[in-house]
Amino acid sequence: MRNYKYILTVFMTLLLAWVVVACEEQDMDRTFEGPYFVRFTDSSLTFKESYNQTISVRVHNAGPQLGEPITVRYAISGTAREGKDYAFEGTKGTVTIPANQSFGEIKLKLINNANNILESQTVVFTLTDVEPASLRVGFGKEGLLGKSITFTIEDDCLLSGNYTGVRQNGAYANLLGITPATATLRDIAITSTDCKTYTITNWNIGLPDLFGYNAIKPSFTFVDTGDNTLTIPTQSNSELGGDTLSGTGSWNPQNRQLSFNLRWKANLRTNAGKDTTLTITFPFTYTPQ
């Protein structure tokens, strides 16, 4: 009797193991047969309205690449106003994923209507249908995942943004006995949190080796006085090593160009070991990119 129970137990154990293995093999052999889907790559994006480069909102095919174009249509909602806050580049309402590719792009350009009112607007894109019909829009229950994206446009201050700067180096060229020339630099950033006092960074446009600032980019602040004139209060920071900056400037409301006369007061030591002060004024012009 004991042998019978032992044999029965072993048999049931082997049978159970066979069932588990058979189920696992069946699950492993099971292949995904679709449907595949398209979706937005991101669920949200945020840009300041002063951003002036083309922005791409990506839609991707989450399945195998197809040998034919994929046409995806979308609806638009939100609080932002087309033509006042943003504009489309290319066909509105439709994005194409090219044949043998995985991504298509909705291209936008932001319109900088900066008015010193710091609010935000949104553009909500929602995928509606796709061709070929073998694909679906969105993933998961009722296709909600990846079906929409909220694009937030943050208002910016009137003078904020990225600029291209130009400086005439005549002031120190004469000092050093070199030929005057013009220096240019892109991606000069101007930011503000209150639309009155602004911070400017990456403005160091080939400053003379005499002062040793060719490897650093000290920042400085200026104040919008409200009548198209600008003031650079006397200031210093650790990067300036005790030197001070001050000056005046202006803003042209027609072309949004900023002009500065930056006064640099440097503390130097002569060959005789005496301390001396040297003041040079640099003219800068910044044009929105």
The domain tally reads 2
State the major sheet.
Answer: 8 strands, antiparallel, barrel
Q: Which stretches are poorly predicted, pLDDT < 50 over at least 5 residues? A: 208-215
Helix content: 10-25%
Shape: elongated
Please state the CA-atom Rg, rounded to the nearest Å.
32 Å
CATH topology-level name of the largest domain:
Lipocalin
Compressed to H and E, one letter per element, the order equals HEEEEEEEEEEEHEEEEEEE
Tell me the CATH architecture of the largest domain.
Beta Barrel
What's the rounded overall pLDDT mean? 81
Name the beta content range. over 45%
How many distinct helices? 2
Q: What is the SS-derived class?
A: mainly beta
Number of strands: 18
CATH class value of the largest domain: Mainly Beta
Protein name: Calx-beta domain-containing protein
Keywords: Signal
Description of the molecule:
This protein is mainly beta. The protein folds into 2 domains: 37-154, CalX-beta domain (Immunoglobulin-like, Sandwich); 161-288, Lipocalin, CATH 2.40.128. The chain is built from 2 helices and 18 strands. An 8-stranded antiparallel β-barrel has the order 11-12-13-14-15-16-17-18.
SSE layout and pairings?
Layout: H1 2-29, E1 37-40, E2 44-48, E3 55-61, E4 70-77, E5 86-89, E6 94-97, E7 103-110, E8 120-131, E9 136-137, E10 148-154, E11 161-168, H2 170-176, E12 182-192, E13 197-201, E14 220-224, E15 229-235, E16 244-252, E17 257-269, E18 275-288
Parallel strand pairs: 1-9, 2-10
Antiparallel strand pairs: 1-3, 3-7, 4-6, 4-8, 5-7, 8-10, 11-12, 11-18, 12-13, 13-14, 14-15, 15-16, 16-17, 17-18
Organism: Larkinella insperata
Signal peptide: 1-22
InterPro entries: CalX-like_sf
